[in-house]
Amino acid sequence: MIEELVIRDLGVIAEATLPLGPGFTAVTGETGAGKTMVVTALGLLLGERADPGLVRQGQPKSSVEGRWLIPADGTVAGRVRDAGGDLDGPELILSRSVSAEGRSRAVVGGRSAPASVLSDLGGDLVVVHGQSDQVRLRTSVAQRAALDRFAGPPLAETLALFQEAYHRWQGHQADLDRLVDEQEQRTREAGELRTAIDEIELVAPQRGEDEALGERAERLGNLEELRVAAAQAREFLSAEENLDDLPDAVALLDSARRQLERAGEHDPALPPLAEALANAGFLVADIAAQLSSYLAGLDADGARELEVVQERRAALTGLARKYAGGIDEAIDFLDTGSARLLELDSDSDRIDTLRGETDAARQSTDDLADRLTGIRLAAAEALGTAVTAELAALAMPNASLVVEVDGRAEITATGRDTVKILLRPHAGSEPRSLARGASGGELSRVMLAIEVVINATDPVPTFVFDEVDAGVGGAAAIEIGRRLARLAETAQVIVVTHLAQVAAFAGNHLSVVKDSDGSVTASSVRQLHGDERAAEMARLLSGLPDSASGLEHARELMNLARTNR
Questions:
Q1: Pick from 46, 132, 117: which is nearest to 85 by CA?
Q2: Do 464 and 451 form a contact (C-beta atoms < 8 A)?
Q3: Where is each RecF/RecN/SMC N-terminal domain found (predicted)?
Q4: CB atoms within 10 A of CB 450
Q5: Which letter does DSSP use for residue 88 in this model?
Q6: How many beta carbons lie within 10 A of that of residue 306, not counting itself?
Q7: Segments making up each domain of the chain, as ranges
């Protein structure tokens, strides 16, 4: 329930506080005083688009704040906490500001939030009906939504199951269509992958192999130069065939050692040097032996091996160029390509599986669509009967409402049903669509009758009606007021009206009063009691708030409403 609404600099309203509370609140005022700004303010709090043109002329921004009383453990409170906000005791405070530049800011439970959070909360807080909603009631979509609300939890639960099955079916069907459409392309891709994998597997590259082969090729390509250098070095160190009797390093070191050993008995400093020369001789001899081993290990048929190495390198280079720039990349391609080929090769099995899953999901969707149709057909008859009874009480005693549910071949996310709400103006006449068979006043009463009936199965905390009485007068207006009062027994009802017959049934009467200083019009809101209310009712009836006959008529009307409320 909305406890209070505070409006600042919105349209012609400079500042206004609307005490609302439970029951039936009527909002009246002169034309242009800003009554519809009340509905606009609520719309902003419910997440509607922020229009900078609504900001009062000369002001930087407009703002709206609403205080709701809600259950602390209810759905709305849970969503508020999910958005980061919280309640102030039993109260939920929502606010929205709109700058003249078009910037909008929403606050939910003390925490900034996107306007979409307000929209999400709005569906559980308020139902707003204006003349645009009367127009929407002429559409099949709005008529189906009204029937579904009346059908209540049984339909909502079945619809949730249906939509789950429907989306599962649509998802499987999309995957199946894609696989079938791409089958030729995927077959071609599989062939190309298979050829590439065979080529890589034939070469069988190893990580780091190209670097090792490069080193081997470099050695084999300079084999003779390596042989000469190693042989000469070995001869210099330790000649195995010293034909010229030239001293080698080992012999020279040995001669030097012997010289020091012979003289060592004369000077203790020489024996350590002789020992060092002996060690050096051993090291040089070892190096000479290693060179001999190196020479023995040089390939005798290096040219043939070099050819084999170069062929292998060429094969690896070809793979590297063809598959992403390197041997490691080619090996990686082999791994990923094999996995992709396995996926592509399983297309036939996947298509068969998807066909089965798609058929099963479609059958489930069909079955649930049939259940939806059955629930809607039963609800359609009950809704037509209940609304017809309401129309009789709304000064349309000969009219009846007919709700038709027609199946169609195509299944959509709401089922396969087309819902039509038809009005039979009088007994014996053919039912006609609301778009062609109802005047504005009749449509207002049909909409009100539908809301009264639906509220019994799908209650909403607050209803807001913006001139629901358009095109209505006299006895019909009194019945509309009576029915709004009846609706207010189970919900909060806020009505913007220009009819005294409707306002008379309100327990809370607010008047939007216009003042003018010659340049800027500002409006304020007053809560009316006693003589002030009688004067406003007289103004609504005759345009003369001070007329004695008008005041008498107004008091008579208020007494009638008080007696019949």
A1: 117
A2: no
A3: 2-517
A4: 25
A5: B
A6: 18
A7: 2-126+461-564
